[in-house]
Write a structure and sequence with these properties.
heterodimer, A: 444 residues, alpha/beta, FAD/NAD(P)-binding domain, 2 domains, seven-stranded mixed sheet, four-stranded parallel sheet, 20% strand, B: 547 residues, alpha+beta, D-Amino Acid Oxidase, Chain A, domain 2, nine-stranded mixed sheet, eight-stranded mixed sheet
């Protein structure tokens, strides 16, 4: 029967971080998930913490850690080493990231002409972070007829002072649409198709040259930068990014788009490669339907496959199934929140306070803070009061975050995934005999 | 448009009834003007389940209403086929429905002139496999679904062809009454806030649930009992035919397939103010429970949104309140306010969309008699303009049209409703200047399963491109274009949220939070002050239709 040292449930940033760290340290790890997760709809950066008052992610972490209910109150010290470790792993997989938790938070343009506060981003997004010199022009350039990136509308919006909220900004913003060869209205074009197209070196060179001509004309000899939709290659991103820097007349940066998120897919691919090279297994498309608990410990996990049930016995479980948006928590018609795998008690506001009346309320909705409360080692307490000592809760499932407003979701995911892995490895190091005994039994 | 200063007849209310009245007046040679406080079809007309009644729902309780329904059903199929999907309908007897009702149903249909055939249950279940397997008997009737906005557009187009006119976003704020006659109405343009006056010989109020408010301007008392009906939109068509419970009409007993979705109706709750009502979680739960008696898997199906309309129920002075709202007549009533001392003012109240043409005919008969006009009604005879050759609507038509052109135009702005970029551009060409919301009603962009999450900003982009191309691109112009796009995006997302709030559980809450995650986390909507600022109190979007 298959067994693993650790089963990680969930393929978001928390699960991927935990699995990569465990695999790297030589643990046998199996990651299972019912499908792709937040990586495929997020911006691909690492949002650690950017509440309005914070100048750097580290300051943001400190502010949030001061709130007793926030996951950073137990994870605050793990954030910096965890993020540094993860960005190191990504560099090793040819996906460079710029920034650390001490990098100043700045406003960068979005694909609807707004701005968002970031500090740690993929290298291909990093030119947006540099302060704007007074004479710089921003050329927003994209393929004509690409429905998820509207250069003219984006440029109109970014020409306004108010979307920059007092930050320095380009002196002038111009939008240009560029016709790509053989790309007409018979094509239903999305970001993934364009990224696949730009994986091809010859097509890429021709496309970039067309874009370069349009950008040169729009910039009119002024210094500046060019904002492109995040489509610069998927499998060959490193090469595509190099070509873009060489062929375009201004410094390029990518702007993340609505799903499918190409920068998020690159992140997923890089971490998948690291998990596999460390001997880890990844099973996407399998829904865990039962977790076997005995004597306060998880003993096995069962998944539904096409024709039969897969069962894996395990020493530990990392529960990184996500919050409500990710499907890790399910709201019933009657206003209850359920954690479906272990039936863990959920901390949540009362149902009549879940959502504010204004859907776009600047403080978000109270329901976003719902989640599982854990002890300082990320262990949850089951409904019957027992502490589940070999279960670690990680990521958006942790209670007390308002991840969207605090821009803290990635930091919590990485720190908790890393902490869960580290705690398991530390525990194993402290109890070598138990493992040796089991190995002996397995051999015997 | 500029609102004319005079009209033979002023018609108040741009729902189906008002549109029908102005068309009928125009065809009898009167120069009429219709005014509507918001966009057309944004009151009760745009907020019902979209059923073209066969009359089957009234055969036991009100045979007059049933007969009117089936007759008008046939008329509408003839004059407005492109607005109708001929889904057919069934009345099915579930284990919960009383035997006496079921046994008398076919005879009651016959007595009311409603076509009705009993059908073989196993055959029905083969065609409609989502229905409860325990259904005992089933009766086929000529129900259908009807697209209210297209119907109003066509009806108004016919009125214009005959020399009358209509103006939207014009709110009546008062009448001038001299010696027992209304001489003029004062209008306020809801977009510019400017006021104008229209002198007229006669006023028809087709203001539905708001008829009491209009009558009060003339010092006349019309007591309406607005009945809120809540409906749930499901993300797919679990049935291709209208399905009714075979029992006395009640809550949650009808499912109507409409375009790509299906609508479960309805509740009936008396409300004090037709502009101010809430939908509660309890109401939603009750509708789902009842609906599950038709479709057992309903509690596991995904609801896209909840919305409500207010029935324009009229309470005659002597009516007994003890029976609740369902006991008030569904038939229409024409009130000649000469009885109350205003000679040239009638209100038409009650009724339903299916019978709107008949209501209009009877109303205009009264008006014509008073004005000495002898021309007879011709509205049942000639088809409306823009009826696409007389074929009824077919769900697959968009795909078929795209395929017929050799597969061109795969450039989809809205994947749910198959709206291509050329379709949206054609709409903009024909209606420019217009808003994102107009594009929605005109093309159905944003009205399918994703409810605008992925397509709204695309239409905003298209509108901004057009603004840049057509309206100057100086810095002030560009900022204004961006602000228009922001406001439209903000209004659309808010409206969408409003319909989701009462049904926020399961997959729908998951999607709501994910959409928030995309718009805030990836797109930075929270940085855009005009979009996230408080919604303007009287913005046209505030009276937007739900579907």
């Amino acid at each position: 029967m298959p067994r693993a040292d650790v089963v990680v449930v969930g393929a978001g940033l928390a699960g991927l971080t935990a699995a990569a760290r465990l695999a790297e340290a030589g643990a046998t790890v199996t990651l299972v998930a019912k499908g792709h997760a937040s990586t495929h709809w997020a911006a691909g950066g690492i949002d650690v913490a950017a509440p309005a008052e914070a100048r750097t992610p580290a300051e943001g972490v400190a502010l949030l850690a001061a709130r007793s209910a926030h996951p950073y109150s137990i994870l605050g010290a793990d954030v910096e080493p965890a993020v540094a470790w993860l960005t190191g792993v990504l560099v090793g997989e040819a996906l460079a990231y710029a920034g650390t938790v001490h990098t100043p938070i700045r406003r960068v343009p979005t694909a609807i002409g707004g701005t968002r506060r970031v500090a740690i981003v993929p290298e291909a997004q990093s030119a947006a972070l540099r302060p704007w010199e007074p004479d710089e022009v921003l050329v927003v350039a994209g393929p004509a007829r690409f429905k998820d990136f509207w250069p003219s509308a984006i440029a109109d919006s970014l020409s306004r002072d108010d979307v920059w909220h007092g930050a320095d900004r380009p002196a002038r913003v111009v939008g240009v649409s560029v016709d790509l060869d053989g790309h007409d209205r018979r094509h239903n074009v999305n970001a993934l198709e364009l990224a696949n197209r730009l994986d091809d070196a010859a097509v890429r060179a021709a496309d970039l040259d067309r874009i370069a001509t349009a950008v040169r004309r729009a910039a009119g000899g002024r210094p500046g930068r060019v904002a492109l939709p995040a489509i610069l290659g998927l499998r060959a991103h490193a090469e595509a990014w190099r070509d873009a820097q060489v062929r375009l007349p201004l410094d390029p940066f990518e702007v993340p788009l609505v799903p499918p998120s190409v920068p998020g897919m690159r992140l997923w691919q890089a971490l998948r490669a690291r998990i596999r090279s460390g001997g880890g297994r990844i099973q996407i498309g399998e829904q865990v339907h039962r977790v076997e608990v005995a004597g306060g410990r998880v003993a096995a996990v069962e998944m539904e496959a096409a024709t039969r049930v897969h069962r894996i016995t395990t020493d530990a479980l990392v529960l990184a199934t996500g919050g409500i948006a990710g499907g890790g928590l399910i709201a019933t018609v009657g206003g209850l929140l359920v954690e479906p795998l272990l039936g863990l008690p959920v901390e949540a506001p009362p149902p009549d306070e879940w959502l504010r009346r204004d859907g776009l309320h600047p403080s978000g909705h109270p329901i976003e803070s719902a989640g599982i409360v854990t002890d300082a080692d990320l262990h949850p307490v089951a409904a019957d009061g027992t502490r589940l000592a070999n279960v670690f809760v990680a990521g958006a499932l942790l209670a007390g975050q308002l991840a969207l407003r605090e821009r803290s979701g990635d930091g919590v995911a990485i720190a908790s995934g890393w902490r869960a892995a580290t705690a398991f490895l530390d525990g194993r190091a402290r109890a070598p005999r138990r493992r040796a005994a089991r190995v002996a039994r397995a051999v015997g | 448009m500029t609102v004319p200063h005079t009209a033979d007849v002023l018609v108040i209310g741009g729902g189906a009834t008002g549109a029908g009245v102005v068309r009928d007046l125009a065809r009898r040679g009167l120069r009429a003007l219709l005014v509507e406080r918001g966009d057309y079809g944004t009151g009760t007309t745009g907020r019902y389940h979209g059923l073209l009644h066969s009359g089957g729902r009234y055969v036991q309780k009100d045979q007059v209403a049933a007969r009117e329904c089936i007759e008008e059903n046939r008329v509408l199929r003839r004059i407005a086929p492109a607005s109708i999907e001929d889904t057919g309908g069934f009345f099915v007897a579930t284990p919960d429905d009383p035997d006496e009702y079921v046994e008398a149903f076919a005879a009651n249909c016959e007595a009311s002139g409603v076509d009705c055939d009993e059908v073989d249950v196993p055959t029905l279940l083969e065609h409609e496999p989502a229905l409860d397997r325990r259904i005992r008997r089933a009766f086929r009737v000529p129900d259908g679904s009807i697209e209210p906005w297209q119907l109003i557009e066509s009806t108004l187009a016919d009125a214009r062809l005959h020399g009358s006119d209509a103006a939207s976003y014009q709110r009546v704020i008062g009448f001038e009454v001299t010696a027992g006659r209304i001489t003029a109405a004062v209008l306020r343009d809801e977009r510019t806030r400017s006021e104008t006056k229209v002198w007229t010989q006669f006023v028809v109020s087709a203001a539905g649930a708001w008829a009491g408010q209009i009558a009060a301007f003339a010092g006349v008392d019309v007591e309406m009992t607005p009945g809120k009906g809540t409906m749930l939109i499901y993300n797919h068509r679990m049935t291709d035919a209208v399905i009714n419970r075979c029992h006395k009409s009640s809550d949650g007993d009808i499912m109507v397939p409409v375009h790509t979705v299906a609508i479960l109706g309805t509740t009936d709750i008396k409300v004090a103010d037709p502009d101010d009502y809430d939908i509660t979680r309890e109401e939603v739960a009750q509708l789902v429970d009842e609906g599950a008696k038709l479709f057992p898997d309903l509690p596991r199906m995904r609801i896209l949104r909840a919305y409500a309309g207010v029935r324009p129920l009229y309470k005659p002075p002597a009516a007994d309140a003890a029976g609740g709202n369902r006991s008030i007549t569904r038939a229409h009533v024409i009130l000649d306010h000469a009885d109350q001392g205003v000679e040239n003012f009638v209100s038409v109240v009650g009724g339903k969309l299916t019978t709107h043409r008949l209501m209009a005919e009877q109303t205009v008969d009264v008006v014509a008699a008073k004005l000495g006009v002898t021309a007879r009604c011709t509205t049942a005879e000639e088809p409306l303009p823009d009826q696409h050759g007389g074929a009824t609507y077919w769900l697959g038509h968009r795909l078929a049209e795209i395929e017929q052109r050799g597969g061109g135009d795969a450039d989809l702005l809205c994947e749910c409703e198959l709206v291509t970029r050329p379709m949206a551009e054609t709409y903009l060409d024909e209606h420019w200047p217009c808003t994102i919301d107009d594009v929605r009603r005109g093309t159905r962009v944003g009205m399918g399963p994703c409810q605008g999450a992925f397509c709204t900003f695309r239409v905003a982009g298209l509108v901004a491109e057009r603004l840049d191309a057509s309206a100057g691109d100086g810095p002030a112009d560009r900022a204004e274009h961006a602000a228009i796009a922001d406001r439209a995006l903000g209004a659309f997302l808010r409206e969408r949220f409003k319909g989701t709030r009462p049904i926020a559980h399961g997959r729908q809450l998951q999607e709501l939070l994910m959409t928030n995650g995309i718009y805030t986390g990836v797109l930075g909507l929270d940085s855009m002050a005009p979009a996230v600022g408080p919604s303007p109190v009287t913005a046209p979007e505030a009276v937007d239709a739900a579907r």
